[in-house]
Amino acid sequence: MRNFLTELGKRRLVADGAMGTMLFAKGLPQGWCPEEWVESHPEEVKAIHQAYFDAGSDIVLTNTFGGSPIKLANYGHADKAAAWNQCAAELAREVAGTDRFVAGSIGPTGHFLPPLGTMTEEEAYNGFTIQAMAMEAGGVDVIFVETMTAIEEIVLAVKAVKENTKLPVVATMTFEQKRKGYRTMMGVSPEMAVEKLQEAGADVVGTNCGTGPELTVGVLRAMRAVTDGYLAGQPNAGLPEIRDGKHIYPMTPEEMVEKMRPLLDLDVRIIGGCCGTNPEFIKRIAAMVKGA
């Protein structure tokens, strides 16, 4: 098995694209629990990982974005957290083999810590710990804590991974363009994200999701101004439009890759896609990254 951080020190790595987009394309019903498919449709989940590897991904993310017991409780599946996170890791590992990387995906709980909500720090930390330990048992190489907007929540997730596993952590937040510059929904700036996440132990920091590649480039430029560390960028394929009740992302793979080129100049080490991207996008991104 290759070491993730050692490899990252040698070259840029291509992450995969959207999991949700691919699951819906394979028939996941609206409102259904995506993580449940690791149990009921394992071959479909593996086929998604395979498609991304075939497109040029060096890393695939597990189907565990909403896999914390707190989030799974919305579907009545809180008790499945450990089993499903481990199963998701094993499915991805089976496809990856020993020469490609598997990242365990940890997304937000969907709940707020006080004073905005009632979720306790202990509940959040314990939930993230259950995910991280189960995914480590399932064979992941790294954990991606992603799409977070609250600094307190993402710091708890990073600490849960670092204090309970031996895995490296990539920590990415989702930003918007505000009047005062780039901020997450909860008011976190790129500079604050870098400081707090590195302090918590993140090995790689960055941004994912958002309105598209221009935003990602802007945020990572701001991050690069305050750190020499590893950066990650995984933008959406533009802003979604609703057509016939479905979210449609307007950017073509060619348009998106053209706008992502500045990431190479910023020495962003992990480059991939988020919502609206599929293996076609990753094929183009991989060609850009590997041709650099």
Automatic annotation (TrEMBL):
BP term (GO), one: methionine biosynthetic process
Signal sequence range: none
Cofactor list: Zn(2+)
Keyword annotations: Metal-binding, Methyltransferase, Transferase, Zinc
GO MF: methyltransferase activity; zinc ion binding
Pfam families in the record: S-methyl_trans (PF02574)
Cofactor note: Binds 1 zinc ion per subunit.
InterPro entries in the cross-refs: BHMT-like, HCY_dom, HCY_dom_sf
Domain Hcy-binding: residue ranges: 1-289
Binding site for Zn(2+): 209, 274-275
Protein name listed in UniProt: Homocysteine S-methyltransferase
